[in-house]
Write a structure and sequence with these properties.
Structural class: alpha/beta
Low-confidence stretches: none
Distance between the termini: 8 Å
Mean pLDDT: 98
Largest sheet: 8 strands, parallel
Oligomer: single chain
Shape: globular
Radius of gyration: 16 Å
Order of helices and strands: EHEHEHEHEEHEHEHH
Strand order of the largest sheet: 1-8-7-6-5-4-3-2
Bound molecules: D-xylitol-5-phosphate, zinc ion
Number of strands: 8
Helix content: 25-40%
């Protein structure tokens, strides 16, 4: 079953709690929370205070995507704010193995994201430690961008690596440019978690927008 994780980056920030409740009612499985620090990516969004402010709005898992430098310095704050799973960028973390284990020692599932130009081979030494791999299908920082087609090749490569190592419990997540025209190819290439910002929040009928991605 494909998991749909609407990204609140495209939500109405003036009504964030209501927006989260609306996508929960519309059938969302996770809430994808795009944390950006203005350094690792050229945009700045929100941090732990906003996450804790919307925590009581929904029981859905908060899938926190840290697009920040040195994530190890603030992971504990995101956990305290209500994160249910944490994904860090391979490109933003010098001690990736140590930081993944830190997240897991804190009791949360750990994910690693790779940007469009980062080869999947970077994941090989840590794949068995991961609960989730996030293949970025746009250059991180903004919603509403075009899906990068080469991502499908990377998706198939990651799926093959997981199968080779017998790791069938690891989620393969895709993020960026996911919509009704790209979703089928993305699922077919092996993704089981689809993040969608614009494709969900820009629509009036969120339930239909989510259903068409599955
Ligand atoms: C981009 C974010 C994505 C983005 C997806 O840096 O990580 O989650 O919000 O937005 P859409 O689905 O609109 O491309
Ligand atoms: Zn994201």
């Amino acid at each position: 079953m494909t998991i749909i994780a609407p990204s609140i980056l495209s939500a109405n920030f003036a009504r964030l709690g209501e927006e989260v409740q609306a996508v929960e009612a519309a059938g969302a499985d996770w809430i994808h929370i795009d944390v950006m620090d203005g350094h690792f990516v050229p945009n700045l969004t929100f941090g732990p205070p906003v996450i804790s402010a919307i925590r009581s709005a929904t029981k859905l898992p908060f899938d926190v995507h840290l697009m920040i430098e040195r994530p190890e310095l603030s992971i504990a704050d995101y956990i305290a704010a209500g994160a249910d799973r944490i994904t860090i960028h391979a490109e933003a973390c010098v001690h990736l193995h140590r930081t993944i284990h830190y997240i897991k020692e804190k009791g949360l599932p750990a994910g690693v994201a790779i940007n469009p130009a980062t080869p999947v081979s970077i994941l090989e030494p840590i794949l068995h430690d991961l609960d989730l791999v996030l293949i970025m299908t746009v250059n991180p920082g903004f919603g509403g961008q075009q899906f990068i087609p080469y991502s499908l090749v990377k998706l198939r490569q990651v799926r093959a690596m997981l199968e080779e190592q017998g790791l069938d419990k690891v989620f393969v997540q895709v993020d960026g440019g996911v919509n009704k025209s790209t979703a089928a190819a993305i699922r077919e290439a092996g993704a089981d978690v689809l993040v969608a910002g614009n494709a969900v929040f820009a629509e009036q009928d969120r339930a239909a927008a989510i259903a068409v991605l599955r």
